[in-house]
C-alpha cells in the first residue's frame, strides 16, 4: 500500500536546499542528455559547474533545462522534485565567485559525508581548473517552475 | 588528484546489469523531463514501467530517450553510463509478460536491499495496476549507442 501526495512550493524548496546531488536534463535538436550534478540552491536558482563539451554546447543552443532531485528513505518512502529553468553561464566576476563559493561548500560537505579526507574536496580555485583543454564553466539555472511528489509506503 | 577513463562496451553492459536504478531523460517540443526509474537490462534493451501521463505522452511523441546510470563508491570513485535508444511500449502478451517478470525481479531485489518486508515488493500483477485512472505502461528502450566513464580518486 502506498500514499502519493504533491509537495507544495515550500516543501520543494526545502528538498532542494537539503540535497546537493541531482540529475540534469538538457536537449537540443531532438537529442537528450542526462547527467548527475552536484549543485547548490540559492534564491530560486541552481548553481553547478562543468567543463566545456557536448552538454555545454547543448545548453548554449537550448538553455531550457531541467533538474530532478530525489530523497529516498526506504522502506518509508521518497520525495522527488523536478524544476525547469534557464541556463545562464556566470562570467561576471562577483557572480562567478559567489557560484564557486557555494559549490565549494557543497563539495566539501559531500566529500566529508562520503568519508574522504577533506583536502580531497575541490576548493574555489579547483573549480576554474581546465581539464583536457576544456575550460571550466560555472552556471546557474534560474528556476521558472517546479513540481514535487512524495510517496509513503505503509 | 583524479584519473578519468572511458568504459568499453563490455564494462558499460556490466554496469547496466549490476545496477537497477537510473535516470531517464525524454524530450518533446523543446521541453525536457528527467525522472528516476527502476529498470532491468537484457539483450541490449532497458525495461521499465510507468503510468500514462506527461512522460508517456512525451515518449510517444518523441521516442528518442536516454538513460543514465551511475555506481558511486566514494571516496574511491565512480562509474557512469549513458545510453540512448528508442522507446517501445510492450503490448504483445509474451513480451509484456517477459518485461513484467524482469521488472518484478528487480523490484524484489530493490525492496529487499532497502530493508522492506518482501511482500511489499510489486508482483507481476501489481505492474498492471491502474493508478488514479492511469493505465500502467511497460516499455523497453532499444539501445542504439552508449558511452561510459570512470573516475578514480587517489
How do the strands and helices of this protein lay out in sequence?
The structure is a homodimer of 154-residue chains.
Chain A lengths: L1 E6 L1 H10 L2 E8 L2 E8 L1 E3 L2 E7 L2 H8 L2 E10 L3 E13 L3 H21 L22 E18 L1
Antiparallel strand pairs in A: 1-8, 2-3, 2-6, 4-5, 5-8, 6-7, 7-8
In summary, what is this structure?
Chain A has 154 residues and is of the alpha+beta class. The first copy, chain A, has helices at 9-18, 54-61, 93-113, and strands at 2-7, 21-28, 31-38, 40-42, 45-51, 64-73, 77-89, 136-153. In chain A, a hairpin with a 3-residue loop joins strand 6 (64-73) and strand 7 (77-89).
Description:
The structure is a homodimer of 154-residue chains. By secondary structure, chain A is of the alpha+beta class. Helices cover 25% and strands 47% of the residues of chain A. Chain A contains three helices and eight strands; from the N terminus they run E-H-E-E-E-E-H-E-E-H-E. In chain A, strands 1, 2, 3, 4, 5, 6, 7 and 8 form an eight-stranded antiparallel sheet that branches. In chain A, a hairpin with a 2-residue loop joins strand 4 (40-42) and strand 5 (45-51). Chain A is globular, with a radius of gyration of 16 Å. The model of chain A has no long low-confidence stretch (mean pLDDT 89). Chain A binds chain B through residues 23-27, 30-36, 62, 64-68, 70, 74-75, 80, 82, 84, 111, 114-117, 120, 153, and chain B through 23-27, 30-36, 62, 64-68, 70, 74-75, 80, 82, 84, 111, 114-117, 120, 153.
Amino acid at each position: 500500500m502506498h500514499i502519493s501526495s504533491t509537495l507544495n512550493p515550500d516543501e520543494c524548496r526545502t528538498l532542494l536546499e537539503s540535497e546537493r546531488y541531482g540529475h540534469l536534463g538538457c536537449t537540443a535538436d531532438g537529442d537528450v542528455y542526462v547527467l548527475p550534478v552536484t549543485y547548490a540552491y540559492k534564491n530560486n536558482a541552481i548553481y553547478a559547474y562543468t567543463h566545456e563539451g557536448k552538454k555545454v554546447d547543448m545548453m548554449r543552443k537550448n538553455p531550457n533545462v531541467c533538474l530532478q532531485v530525489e530523497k529516498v528513505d526506504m522502506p518509508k518512502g521518497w520525495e522527488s522534485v523536478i524544476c525547469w529553468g534557464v541556463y545562464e553561464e556566470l562570467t561576471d566576476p562577483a557572480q562567478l565567485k559567489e557560484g564557486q563559493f557555494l559549490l565549494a561548500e557543497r563539495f566539501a560537505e559531500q566529500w566529508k559525508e562520503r568519508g574522504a579526507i577533506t583536502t580531497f574536496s575541490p576548493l574555489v580555485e579547483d573549480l576554474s581548473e581546465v581539464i583536457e583543454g576544456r575550460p571550466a564553466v560555472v552556471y546557474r539555472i534560474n528556476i521558472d517552475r517546479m513540481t514535487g511528489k512524495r510517496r509513503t509506503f505503509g
